[in-house]
Amino acid sequence: MTSWVLETGDNQGLPFVLIDKVNAHVFAFSRDGLLLGDAPVLLGLARGDIAPPGIGDRPLSAIGPEDRITPSGRYVAGIGDNLTGKNVLWIDYAGALSLHRVVTGRAADRRLQRLTTPTSEDNRISYGCVNVPVAFFEETIEPAFRDTAGIVYILPETLSMAEVFPGV
User: Fold this and answer.
1) pTM above 0.85, yes or no
2) What H or E segment, with its residue span, contains residue 112?
3) Is domain 2-160 in CATH 3.60.10.10, yes or no?
4) Nearest-5° angle of CA 22, CA 128, CA 157?
């Protein structure tokens, strides 16, 4: 995918991020395709590649486990504040999809522990957002996307690459 992005110029000279849902991992690249860093991620609880209709308009309490999907696709993303004033990388603002620092509010979720396990099987817990380690967000994502937009590619897990990214 990285080769395709660079060969076609699909990133339009912007920094870009690849999110591999199957392996629960993120890779951040400069506008020139240099790897800036990578990290494990937490993803939506449910498997799938298409966001349920109207998901961004629902309160969290109205999002059932089967609808907690991290949708695949190509997104123009930028840094902005969430409802609590924390900066996040908005992947799809209307769909309420962002990449942000790992949320650790509920100890029972064991989110920090999930990020450190050798398997990606326990990395499915969010409502759909992509949770990353705090240091990765602050040292890689924030500087790469500061004062610029960028592209986020979320790779599919149930659809084919060609269905999500025609021409790949």
Assistant:
1) yes
2) helix 111-116
3) no
4) 25
